[in-house]
Specification:
single chain, about 475 residues, alpha+beta, Uridine Diphospho-n-acetylenolpyruvylglucosamine Reductase, domain 2, Uridine Diphospho-n-acetylenolpyruvylglucosamine Reductase, domain 3, Alpha-Beta Plaits, 4 domains, 5-stranded antiparallel β-sheet, 15 helices, FAD-binding oxidoreductase, FAD-bd_PCMH_sub2
């Protein structure tokens, strides 16, 4: 992987400052590290740097300031908004070698890790101490904690535990000037001025490079069961959610369509029902005693008797629970080969029924020729819309058609007080629609904050907004 003699003089000077730095200009590495899961831009980085320490990261940033080289921070690159794309001669700064657990504090129940560690490795490390890091989603094996923090990732358990920012006790960050900041020091209470830690969370690498994080851990959840529900119509979805939320302690409440199930089954999942139903819900909820198990059956029976569900199955083992979850968590992987155009939107839960009705009508009208796959975290107001490109369609024309519809969707979100990006970030993909979620005054303030923390404008330039 190492390129021992970079041709570019700027890279020669970087090598002179950091003789032990892993640095590559290999075309295969450039393609691999220069893009994320969007696959919409052709990677064209200057080089890829893979530092192994905070000092190396800080030195790279100071070199970039001196040389005027832009930097794209890189984690697992599982993002879906173009936030980790390097297409204009930037240096990709990959944190993948900085992937260790640094400390566990039993009293504070906190785990300090390097930013390149995979989410699944964090889960495993917390479990070794009898605790959990409760943020979770399907890309757990490949996404990194630094990337999760950069996008304030949510996932399948937001309804119970909230987003990433609720679990970040402290951060170590390298700013755009190459300064190393210790933010919040893992304090529970800290009213000493602005909380720059929270400012960094969700900033998509435009304000600083997260190099270490102290994560809050939680008690393991109570025993749970998983139930898959088949729904007769879209209109019953929020009624089913209300019925289950009223009777149970929900860990997750996920929705998907018959088209989503079709693609997951084609990808190898097990068929749950003999008949095909238009909509499905997979929900996980606390059990552990007879009263809670009775409440789960009461919720299902109420929905069945009132025509809100057609059928259902409840897990009888961990293996069956995993099979049911695969029907939801396998959607993104099953759709990947189609290069889908993705929307990731959110509204308040109270606004969800009206927004869903309007959106369903909008997509049916605007996408009659496309296979549209819906799924989402309905319990926290987050909906994912995947439009699949037909095999014979020109990709550029397909994207143009989808972006026209996204503008209409952005207008609908503005009417309902929603967001064009619930958990994937803005990146490049959503940048044209940011004004639908943020006011011009807010965006100008964000530009001002970036100028302070990244005075040369070298950290992930062009992402979120134009300088």
């Amino acid at each position: 992987m190492t390129d021992p003699q970079p041709i570019d003089a700027r890279l020669e000077r970087l090598r002179a400052q950091l003789p032990g730095l892993r640095l590559t200009t290999d075309p295969a590495d450039a393609e691999h590290y220069g893009r994320d899961w969007t696959r919409r831009w052709t990677p064209a980085p200057l080089a890829v740097a893979l530092p192994a320490s905070v000092d190396e990261v800080a030195t790279i940033v100071r070199w970039a300031v001196d040389e005027g080289v832009a930097i794209v921070p890189s984690g697992g690159r599982t993002g879906l908004s173009g936030g980790a794309v390097a297409a204009n001669g930037e240096l990709v700064l990959s944190l993948e070698r900085m992937n260790r657990v640094l400390d566990f504090d039993a009293v504070d129940r906190a785990l300090t890790v390097q930013a390149g560690i995979a989410l699944e490795a964090v889960h495993n490390a917390a479990r070794e101490h009898g605790l959990v890091y409760p943020v979770d989603f399907a890309a757990r094996g490949s996404c990194s904690i630094g990337g999760n923090i950069a996008t304030n990732a949510g996932g399948i358990r937001v309804i119970r535990y909230g987003n990433t920012r609720e679990w970040i006790a402290g951060l170590k960050v390298v700013t755009g000037a190459g300064e190393v900041l210790e933010l919040n020091r893992a304090l529970i209470k800290n009213s000493s001025g602005y909380d720059l830690r929270q400012l960094m969370i969700g900033s998509e690498g435009t304000l600083g490079i997260v190099v270490e994080a102290t994560l809050r851990l939680a008690d393991p959840p109570p025993p749970t069961n998983v139930m898959l529900l088949a729904l007769p119509s879209f209109e019953t979805l929020m009624q089913v959610f209300a019925a289950f939320r009223e009777r149970l302690t929900l860990e997750a409440f996920e929705f998907f369509t018959d088209r989503a199930l079709h693609h997951v089954l084609a990808h190898g999942a097990q068929k749950p029902f003999d008949e095909v139903h238009p909509f499905y819900v997979v929900t996980e909820f606390a059990v552990g005693d007879e009263a809670k198990e009775a409440a789960a059956m009461a919720a299902f029976e109420f929905c069945l008797e009132n025509g809100l569900v057609n059928d259902g199955v409840i897990s009888q083992s961990d293996a069956q629970a995993a099979q049911l979850w695969r029907l939801r968590e396998g959607i993104t992987e099953a759709l990947a080969k189609y290069k889908p155009y993705k929307n990731d939107v959110s509204v308040r839960i109270s606004a969800m029924p009206a927004f869903l009705a309007e959106t369903q009508a909008l997509l049916a009208r605007e996408y009659p020729q496309f296979d549209v796959v819906w799924f989402g975290h309905i319990g926290d107001g987050n909906l994912h819309i995947n439009v699949l490109k037909p095999d014979d369609a020109d990709y550029a024309v397909f994207v143009d058609q989808c972006e026209h519809v996204t503008q209409l969707l952005s207008d609908a979100l503005a009417r309902h007080g929603g967001s064009i990006s619930a958990e994937h970030g803005i990146g490049l993909v959503k940048k044209p629609y940011l004004l639908g979620t943020r006011s011009a005054a807010e965006i100008e303030l964000m530009r001002g904050i970036k100028r302070v923390l990244d005075p040369k404008g070298l950290l992930n330039p062009g992402k979120v907004f134009d300088a």
